[in-house]
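Today's session is about reading a structure prediction critically. Students often jump straight to the picture, but the first step is always the sequence itself: look for stretches that repeat, for charged clusters, for runs of hydrophobic residues. Only then move on to the predicted structure, which in these notes is written as discrete structure tokens rather than atom positions. Here is the chain we will use throughout the hour.
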Amino acid sequence: MYKKLKFIIAGVAIVAGLASAVSCQDLSKDVADLGNRVSTLENTVKDLQSKISAGAVITNVASSAEGVTVTLSDGKTFKITNGAKGDKGDKGDTGATGATGATGAAGTPGTVITIGENGNWFIDGVDTGLKAAGKDGKDGKDGQDGKDGKDGLNGQDGKDVKTA
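Below is the predicted structure for this chain, in token form.
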């Protein structure tokens, strides 16, 4: 039992070591690639600086999908290319909530509409000259009398009441 446990622990250690080595190799490759790109860029900048120091001036800078092309007065051009798009980074921590801002100035009151003692509409205390209630209209003409209806049916005779 002890030998089996020892063998399993050794196997796990080997697998972990290999995984670590692979991940370190990937990281080493990335670091080396970045180092090469920085060296290339540094050499381009040195060459550009030496031309400018010798009297050349930048006459044009043109952007393109690949990067930027710098043209000097002596006709020499330098291309600075964009690097490959990197992976999206992890989301950062949420920042602290900022302080509450100062209270703004008080707003102006809205329009106030009322009916004055004279019966007119008032807007913000100013008489509009318009009556809030309309005047009664003239009475209309009398209509025509309707036609007489048919006579109703005769009712049933009632019972006689005996008196004592």
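Discussion point for the tutorial: The longest helix spans residues 2-53.
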